[in-house]
Structures are given as structure tokens and as C-alpha cells.
Amino acid sequence: MLMALNIEIKQPEGISLASRLGLLMLLALVTWLYSGELKAHQNFYFHPIDAASASNLKEETATNTGSNSGTPPVPLAADEFIMNGELTVNQGCLISVNTTFRISPTGTVNNSGTMELRDMVTVEGAMNGTGLNGNMVLNGTQSTQGVSTTGAGNSFHHLELDNPFGANLLSDCTVGGMLTLTNGVLSTDTNTLILTSTDPLDLPAADPPAPNFVYGNLRKHILSNTQNTYTFPVGLGALATHYFRADLTSNALVGVDYVTVSVSPITELPGDDGSIVATQDGTPIIDVHADAEWSITPNAAISSGTYDLDLYVGNTTSGIVSNTFTILKRPGNSTLYSDWQSHDGTTQIPASNAPGRVAGPGGFARKMGFDGFSKFGIGSGASPLPIELLYFNAVPNDQMVDVIWTTASEINNDFFTVERSKNGIDFEMLVELPGAGTSNQVLEYSSKDDTPYNGLSYYRLKQTDYDGKYEYSKTVAVNLQEPGKQYMYPNPAHDLLHIDLGDSLSNIQVVVESLNGQKVLFYTGASHSQIHTLDIKDISAGIYFLRIYSRDKNEVMRFIKL
Asked: Which neighbouring-strand residues pair with 379?
């Protein structure tokens, strides 16, 4: 039901809408009474020089004489509603504009009620809202609406999109309160929709089947050092199947005031799944789904805290299977599949069949404990891991290596194979041990390598099911020193490179050479130190030879500078 309204002209310029049931403002020299909903079917043009005349509400093409009073609706013929003065919409009131609406640089709109705008919206002046009210509704029914907010006070208080044809941002747009996506896609192009409210409830989730999300850049401010979940209803096109929602849960994040989220398809062609090196809990990732790649950019780096991420996979077309997929991450400027990483050493995924591991409509991938932002995607392994591995490690023990692992549960587990490698790429079988079949108890296993490789070597665990399917654990490294032999670590190295002389206490000289033989670094170490450290941060990234000269022997080793 429409509420009766009074329109009053304020001195010296302006329009005020007040409910007939409320207090009528008596500041105007002339009051133009209008019973019913004010519908600007065509052009209302406000002329502040006519403050004492009812003709300040008039057609753009009309003269400054005459009156717009009459039987509603007032038949106006032009195509724009321009506000040069002040318009106040009080709480409980509704103004509906069926034509282009513009607040000029000298205009101000104070909206504590509801404004329904059904065509192009241009804000060059000030626009204010208060409290739980001040709703601006884009509810055209014929075509896509354009929105341009370039004024100094260009913030919508509450904004709702209810137009099946959607709306396009022609500039950055700020919403200080709630954004409600009822129907239609809000496209930002290269602009950004900015939500300054830190209340998670001010951006409710958008749900299918209607396409009701943001296509482009969506920025949301977040509270510092709190536990909150923020929904980002983003998509990569205008169809319902283009919706790829992301939810971010802040675990006491500090240092970040807001994040900007967008989603797009992965465009590298061909998709080089063969170069993927990521694993999740030992399971190789063999496919990155090209349907969607989420970009999440903060205003500043995280100083403390972490965050969890949910990425929705219901519209992924490349066949995601429950319990086989996970979130991957790569640098924001990367286009390489080899850069995708699971970060499974510092993050966690839910248990099998838990939320965050199940595909289908409404399904999503969840990963907990991220401490940096960039680009994110969905990767899949060949099959789920049929055991729940709690622990796997290889530990030097004198001149042998103890391999230890623990399972929390096993399903159809036939046997384990411990494998080792000198280079971390080519593995050989060390020993095979029977599995427990099916078990819900914590079980501990161990094996011993009596003849391990000297120096740096690698171990992994292969688990084979009764039907022949198998999965690998993560790979662990062991550095077993041969007495009297010299070693360097880490390799690759970024800032510092350490040389371990073993049981030798000789004076040493070190020369670092590039591949073309150019000497780039010299070092002399005293005999009282067994471990020597080289500062390599100032040399360029690349491959180098490290030549060690000592009383006992001379050696050449190769390392990579990152």
C-alpha cells in the first residue's frame, strides 16, 4: 500500500518529503501538496531560483511560469529528473522515479525512506542516508541500469538490486550499509563496488537460481582481530552458471582493513596440468579446474592471524568428485601451472565427507590457516586417500634412517611401500609392509634403512588398496652426513648458504663461480669453525658452482640462488 506524501519546498531551495502521518515541515514559503506516491514518470527539474513558486517542480522544456499542480500523476514529457537543490525523503516514505535520475553537483539527497530508481542513476552531488533506513532500490524492468557516482559524497546508504536485466557501474561505487542482491547481476567492469561496513550481515549470501551476484571487483571492509565470516557473492559473467561464491573467515586477522575479490576463468592455453607439482597430504594434484580462479587482494599485508577460505564449486563443469579436490594457491602475477601450491604444510583441510570436501550443488572447497593472499583455484587428485595418515617422517639414526608413520584409520588398505630417492624425483622401493585392511584405531608403523644414501636423500610412503589403487604421502628429506665429508645447505638458497665440514676442522677457502666461470664471491673460513655461512643475498638469481679448497681435499658443488 502506498503512503500519502506531502511535498514541501524549503527556503531557499529544496524538496522535502514527509509522511502525512508525521510532522509536516513548515519552513517553506509555498507548500505544494500531492496526495499519493510521487512518481516521476518523466522529467522533474528543480529550479532553485523559483523557491517561492510551485513551478520549481516542472518540465525541463517548460517555462518558469505556471503550476504543476493537478490530478496525479502530473503528466511530464521530458526524460530526466535532475536535483539541483535538496531532496529529503523521510522515514516511511517512498519516492519512485521511472526515468533518469541525477543529483547535480549542487544537489543533495537525504534519504531516510526508500527511493526506487528504474533507469540511469547519476550522483554528482551529495547523497546521505541514516540508520536502518535510507534504501536505494535499482528496480528497472526493461533494461540494464547504469550507475555513476562521481560526487564528493557518493555513498549509497543501503543499496538493493532487483532488476532482472542487472546494472552496470560506470565508476567506483561505495555502499556504507547493506548491499542486497535480490535479482540481477551487478557488473563493475574495471571499477570496484566498495562496501565500507565491517558487519558481515551487511552482505548476505546470494543464492541460485536467480543470477544475483557481482560480476567484477567487490571490496569488503573487515574487522580487525576478530572471528567473522564474510561472504563474497562474485561471478565471472551474467548467467546463473557464472556464480562462484567465496567465503572468507578471519581468524583474528590484524593489519588488513579490506580485501578485494574477483573471479575469472583460467585463460592459459593450453592448460598445462602436466607441469603441476603440488600434492595434498601426499596425493599428487593432477588437474586444475579452469572454470574459475579467484583473486583476493588485501590493502596491506597480514601482520598476525590467519584466515579460512571456502570456494564454491557447484558451477564447475569439469567433473569434481567428492573428497578428491582442494584449494590451490599461486602468486597474483603468475600464469604458470607449476606455481600452483597446496600449502598443505601450513594449512588444513576438513575430514573426508565433511563440509568443504563434498561436490555437487552448494558444494565448496575449504582450507584453513592461510596467512597470505593471492590467486586461488581448485585442484583435484586422481582419487581419495584411503587411509587417514596422522604422521610420516624419516629420521637419521647414527648411520641409518628410521622411517616412522601413524594412521588414524584405514579402509581396504592392502600394503605400504617405503620408497627412497637421491634427487627427490626418481624413487626406488626400500621395503613393503602389510596394511591393516580396514581399521578405525590409531596404528603405528616403522621401518629401517640400513644402507641409506650419504648426504641429502628423500623418503615417501606409498599406500596400495586391495583394488590396486594407490596414493603417496608427502616427501620428507634426510641429510645423512658421511664422516669427513663436506656439505652445503639449503639448496636452493635465498640469503644464506651454510657449509658443514663434518668432522674436519681445516681452514677453507670458498669461491663461488657462475656457469660461465666468472668469480662472484670469495670466502675464507678459520679452522675453529665446523659450519661456515656465506652471505649470498647480493648475487643474482641463477645456478652457481661452489668450490671448496681445504687442507684435506678440494670439492665442487652446485647450488641454486633464488
From this structure: 288, 326
Neighbours of 535 (CB within 10 A): 11
Q: Name the residue type at position 428.
A: E
3-class SS of residue 496:
strand
Residue showing cell 580485501: 259
Domain 483-561 in CATH 2.30.30.100: no
Rounded to 5, what percent of the chain is helix, strand, coil? 5, 50, 45
CATH architecture assigned to 387-479: Sandwich (2.60)
pLDDT per position as a tens digit, 168-222: 999 999 999 999 999 999 999 999 999 999 999 999 877 666 689 999 999 999 9
- For 272, the grid coordinates are 598445462
- The whole model's pTM is what? 0.62
- Tell me how far the alpha carbon of residue 386 is from its chain's centroid: 31
Helical (H) or strand (E) element with 134: none
End-to-end CA distance of the chain: 69
399 dihedral zone (left: phi>0; alpha: psi -120 to 50; beta): alpha
Looking at 1.10.260, 1.10.15, 2.60.220, 2.40.10, the CATH number of the domain 214-384 comes to: 2.60.220
The answer to whether the CB of 416 falls within 8 A of the CB of 432 is yes
> Model confidence over 23-70: pLDDT tens digits?
222 222 222 333 233 333 333 333 333 333 333 343 333 332 223 333
